[in-house]
Amino acid sequence: MTERKSNIEALAATQATTQGAVTATPEEALSALDSLPEAPSSSQVLTALDCFKEALKGMSETARELAREGAIKRLRELGHATPGRLVDSVMPPSVRPTSDTKAGSAIGFKEPEPWAEPVEGAALLEALEHTVKRYLALEHRQAVTLALWVLFTHAHDAFEISPILALTSPDKGCGKSTALALLSALVPKPLTSANITPSAVFRVTDYFRPTLLLDEADTFLGDSEGLRGILNSGHMRSQAYVTRVVGDDFQVCMFSTWTPKAVALIGEMPGTLADRSVTIRMRRRKQ
C-alpha cells in the first residue's frame, strides 16, 4: 500500500511538473519504474507506467528514446516477458528513417482507431466480401473466408487459436500479391515482407504485434526449418513463445509469436504449416 501511495504521489508530482512546462529528463521519467519492488503487482506496474507516460510530455525525441530503452531494461529485470510491448503501450514508437541508409528504415505502426459509431457485423462482412470480389478472382466461399479472416485480425486477442491464412497458386499471376496488398489496407498494423528471417519474425511480433503478410514464401520458407518452427509456434496462444538468450549477460528471455499471419506462395504450404492454415487456392482470372 505504501509503495502504491508513493507511485501515486510521483504521478501527481510529474503531472504538476508537466503543467508547469518543465520538461522531465529521461532519468526523472524512469524514477517511478526504478522504485518498483522486485515482484510488483499489476496495479503498481500500471501506476508506474502512468507516471512514466506523463513524464514523457514535452521531451525531445532523443530523450524519449533514452527513456524508453531504460524502461524496457527495468521491466525486463523485473521478469516481464514482453517489456517492449508494455512500454510502447504508453509510448508508441515514432516512424522515421534511420540516419544510416545501410540499416534500412525503422518500423512503426499507427494504432487502429475505433469507428465513432457501433458497427453492424453482418453489414461489415458483406461490404468486405464485396470489396474482395471487386479486386480478386475468387469463388464466393473464398471471398467470404478472406473477409472473415480480416475480421479475425481485428479481434485476434479474443481467440485461443490463430490459423495462418495461406494464399497458394499453381503458378505466378494468380493474384496472391494483389490479395496481400488488399489485406494490407484492411487489417490492423500490416507488415508486408517478401523475405524475413526467423529472428525478425519473433522480435517484430513480440515488439509490435503486427499482422504479418509474407509474400513470395516459396522462395525462402521451404529452406528455413527455424522459420517454419516459429510460424508453427504461433498457432496456439498458450504456446506462442520462443526462448532466446539475449544481451551481454546472457539473459534467457521469452518472445511472443502470437499474431495474425498470412502467407502467399506458389505451390503448397509445408506439411506442419498446412495443418495450421486456412488455405485459399487461387487461379488466374478467366479471360
List keywords for this structure.
287 residues; alpha/beta; Rossmann fold; 2 domains; five-stranded parallel β-sheet; 11 helices; 7 strands; globular
Give an overview in words:
The protein is of the alpha/beta class. The protein has two domains: about 1-95, no CATH class; about 155-280, Rossmann fold (3-Layer(aba) Sandwich). The protein is built from eleven helices and seven strands. Strands 2-3-6-1-7 form a five-stranded parallel sheet. Strand 2 (about 190-195), helix 9 (about 200-210) and strand 3 form a beta-alpha-beta unit.
Summarize the biggest pleated sheet.
Answer: 5 strands, parallel
Low-confidence stretches: 1-21, 95-101
> What share of residues are in beta strands?
5-15%
Task: Give the CATH topology of the largest domain.
Answer: Rossmann fold
- Count of extended strands: 7
Total number of domains = 2
Q: Write the element-wise H/E pattern from the N-terminal end onward.
A: HHHHHHHEHEHEHEEEHE
User: Which outline best applies?
Assistant: globular
Going across the biggest sheet, name each strand in turn: 2-3-6-1-7
Tell me the number of helical segments per DSSP (H or I, 4 or more residues long): 11
Intertermini distance: 72 Å
CATH superfamily of the largest domain: P-loop containing nucleotide triphosphate hydrolases
> Roughly what is the average pLDDT, rounded to an integer?
84
Structural class: alpha/beta
Radius of gyration using CA atoms only: 22 Å
Kindly state the percentage of residues in helix.
Answer: 40-55%
Supply the CATH class of the largest domain.
Answer: Alpha Beta
Secondary-structure arrangement, i.e. CATH architecture of the largest domain: 3-Layer(aba) Sandwich
